[in-house]
Write a structure and sequence with these properties.
The protein is α+β, with helices and mostly antiparallel strands and about 270 residues long. A hairpin with a 3-residue loop joins strand 5 and strand 6. The protein has a 4-stranded mixed sheet with strand order 3-4-6-5, sandwiched between helices. A two-stranded antiparallel sheet has the order 1-2. It has one domain. About 55% of the residues lie in helices and about 10% in strands.
């Protein structure tokens, strides 16, 4: 009864907070201002880096590569939205790109452009263009406010969507949801279907952004084939996973390829 009551009174806030995303054109639930998420991200990002082995760009070509590729994609995204008159999408963004010594095959981007790549990803990426595919994907999650959408869904599920005032970072429940969405390797079980939709959006626009930055979008196909091989046969069925099945993802990427190639101009080093 209590849960039903919370969900019932939360419905008006849900309808009010449904907006059209300027990146994807899709209706999204957005209960929190991006500025608030960016503030929370700065705190969590600094905390993560302080507890991790950050690889110095002055001592590592790999770390310099991560910084270089990320910066090129960030510049491409800025140009893309400025030309469309949507530059305010990136309000508050202060890009940071760091390589962390961690064997996990992973990378992520928090609100405001706080990006981390794990060293474990690089042997699978194998080249700069494949790294660009990954960073384009992860950065799209941020600029398309996918995290805000997942947090908002979590807030409604927990009855927080009924709160009238803007929730602050001091709210323990909101902090918990934030960590569940943005914590490295995390996932929220009740948002799995939407997460797959978000993954396809990140693949689509990430491919375009990588191409705009001067990286061959065709590298996405062999990269995801390598990722599939690296995963082995221990992956759960697609309906139980946040990410699409590898063969479905690759098929979608092939469908996006002609569009991405229109933006592709090889990078000049």
């Amino acid at each position: 009864m209590k849960k039903s009551f919370f969900l019932l009174i939360a419905l008006p806030a849900v309808f009010i907070a449904c907006t059209t995303n300027a990146v994807t054109g899709r209706k999204q639930l957005s209960l929190l201002p991006e500025s608030q998420l960016q503030e929370m991200a700065i705190t969590e990002y600094k905390s993560f880096l302080s507890q991790s082995k950050v690889v110095s760009t002055s001592a590592s070509k790999d770390a310099e590569m991560v910084r270089r590729v990320g910066s090129r994609i960030a510049n491409a995204i800025t140009e893309y939205y400025t030309k469309q008159g949507k530059g305010d999408i990136l309000n508050g963004y202060k890009w940071e790109f760091n390589l962390v010594d961690n064997k996990d095959v992973n990378a992520w981007c928090m609100p405001g452009g706080k990006v981390v790549v794990y060293t474990g990803l690089l042997p699978v990426a194998q080249n700069e263009a494949a790294l660009a595919i990954v960073l384009g994907h992860e950065i799209t999650h941020a600029v398309a406010t996918h995290g805000n959408e997942r947090m908002s869904q979590g807030m409604v599920t927990q009855g927080l969507g009924a709160v009238g005032d803007v929730l602050t970072s001091g709210n323990s429940k909101v902090n918990s949801i934030f960590n569940g969405v943005y914590g490295p390797g995390s996932q929220l079980g009740f948002t799995l279907p939407n997460s797959r939709k978000q993954e396809y959006e990140a693949d689509h626009f990430g491919l375009i952004f990588a191409a705009m930055a001067g990286y061959n979008p065709r590298e996405a196909i062999p990269f995801w084939q390598r990722m599939s091989a690296a995963g082995g046969g221990n992956k759960p069925p697609e309906f139980l996973a946040t990410h699409p099945a590898d063969e479905n993802r690759i098929a979608r990427l092939q469908g996006y390829m002609d569009e991405a190639l229109k933006y592709y101009k090889p990078v000049t080093k």
